[in-house]
Sequence to fold (410 residues):
Amino acid sequence: MPAMTLPPLTPEQQVKPRRFELRISLLFAALFVPMGVHLPYFPLWLEAKGFDPEQIAVILSAPMFLRVITTPLITAMADRAKDRANVFIFLAASALLLSLGYFLEPTYLIVLAVSLGLSVVWTPHSPIADSLALSGVRRFGSDYAAMRIWGSIAFLAGSLGAGFILSLTGAGAVPAIISIGLLGCFLMSFITPQLGKPRRASPLSATDMHQAVPKLFNRYFLLMAAGTGVIIASHGFLYGFVSIYWKSLGISETVVGLLWSWGVAAEILMFMLFTRLFGRHSTVFVLILAGVGAIIRWVAYPLIWPLGFGVSGFFAVQSLHAFSTALVLIGVQKLIAESVPEERTGAAQGIAYFTNGMSMAVVTLLSGPLYERFGAGGFYFMAGVAAFAILLVLAAARSAPQLGQRRRDH
Fold:
């Protein structure tokens, strides 16, 4: 298949902006700090405001359904803009303003409406930052991983810092900490490098997806993408209710932050060691290992406290984040690299984002009734979700040789 012809770089686009890598690294750090606050602690705030598990599940899942549709459209709009940096600044300002809606009377409809609006303008931050970083990789030979890792470090710092603050103030301070984080993101957005329009569609861009989706409709890729999405979705119960569960056991906000940070640290470690440990293994093997890690993790969660393993047991199980999450993220990239032509990688990323997002939204929505009825026992259902994902990967593996033959013949 011939490669797409890319538009030539203008003379201005060939000039590397001053301190490009530092500016992108700071941008990643700024946008991941509020994420490190929202993911672990927003459910605690919702519970503190009197919402029941089913309401919490709707407030968390409804934005997931919406952003799967809006994020590709916004990244496509950013591609067509004069400069993506301007779009990022606008989105950062909009996210900051909308986050102030959580200071209104926290009725169910108000919190749901604010969450929906916030997801539209907040979620595109990461793919647009990715697109800027990848433009630097292509044009100037920048190291993507060296820039992106500061996002993970900032997520850790945000989780730890917020946990310490909330241990002193209580969950009521969560909206203020999120807004302060988004203020930092807005202020940092002004150092976003001006790179002009991208030569390739940004990650998750609806434009690239629309043009290339028909070419990616093959059994192997779709089943594998579905498998990765379902493994990720099995984390829906964790993201929605594990902080609430830990708090119900009397675990402090500081330790909750440490537990979340430990999982992210395990993920980073897997990224560092993956090539040495599993680099020669197939995508199917990597994803099955991820699914098995998820099953062990979900089966273990409800047993740790009753069996007397305490907080140290939760730390041990959080280490499995390296398998249930990091291996999936790596597996998606291996899948795309092995089965998708280079000019269609953006669309493939978009399809993976769609399957991950929709699956996660559905499972998160179901997690509310599960937690309300079964408490931590809801994790057992997540083990079933991960087992189903393994079946999808195994079904995909049966068509892998035929796909390889078709590509060679082509």
